[in-house]
Amino acid sequence: MPESNISLKSDKSARGYLCIISALVIWSSQGLVVRAAKMPIASIVFYSLVVSVIFQSFIFLSGPIRRGIPSVRGFLIIFVLSVFAAINSLTYFYSYSYTSISNAVFTHYIAPVVVMLIAPIFLKEKITLAAVFSITIASGGLWIIMRDVSVMDIAAQLFSPDSTTTAAARFRPDTIGILCGLASGVAYGAVIVILKIISGQYNKYVVVFFQNLFMAVLIAPFAGPIPRDAGSLMIIAVIGLFYSTVATYLYFSGISYVRANKAAILGYIEPIGAILLGGLLMAELPERLSVLGGALIIAAGYIIIKKG
Question: Where are the chain's structural domains?
Answer without folding.
Answer: 19-307
